[in-house]
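User: Sequence recovery, please. Input:
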């Protein structure tokens, strides 16, 4: 008795439907994507200072303390330089930029600043104060001129004020 064997053909992979799906899906996803500009700043913790370093009179150790009601700009050695009260409910970063420009003209070689924030400081406020400390922008004709102020920013915790 003869045995009949069926000849089996190799199965072909049918990917036409998948390719059609990809052709439609890729442009849709690309059109719905949100493109953002990401900027990274290198920041560091404030350095520990020795007593000998603090004896330098003409040395500026710039500190900006973010309080809920004001911005306190000071020198770690010399004390408070200026207190900038809030304008309405927000911090006055324009006045801070003006003050930073004045300080930069007095200390042109300094590039370091320490930013001290209280624990509940909003992130947006922290970024605005950092931007105002890093550079100033001014209009010159139709162009915006950027002037570098204090780009090396260290971030730390603000000293706690004890309420009496």
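Assistant: Recovered sequence (164 residues):
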């Amino acid at each position: 008795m003869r045995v009949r064997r069926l000849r089996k053909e190799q199965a072909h992979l049918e990917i036409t439907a998948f390719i059609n799906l990809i052709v439609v899906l890729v442009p849709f996803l690309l059109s719905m994507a949100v493109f953002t500009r990401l900027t990274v700043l290198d920041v560091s913790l404030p350095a520990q200072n020795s007593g000998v370093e603090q004896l330098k009179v003409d040395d500026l150790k710039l500190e900006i303390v973010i309080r809920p009601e004001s911005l306190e700009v000071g020198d770690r050695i010399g004390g408070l330089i200026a207190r900038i009260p809030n304008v309405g409910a927000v911090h006055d970063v324009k006045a801070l930029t003006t003050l930073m420009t004045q300080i930069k003209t007095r200390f042109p070689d300094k590039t370091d600043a320490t930013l001290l924030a209280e624990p509940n400081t909003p992130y947006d406020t922290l970024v605005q104060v950092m931007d105002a400390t890093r550079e100033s922008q001014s209009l010159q004709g139709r162009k915006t001129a950027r002037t570098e102020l204090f780009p090396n920013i260290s971030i730390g915790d603000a000293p706690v004020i004890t309420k009496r």
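DSSP finds three helices and seven strands in the chain.
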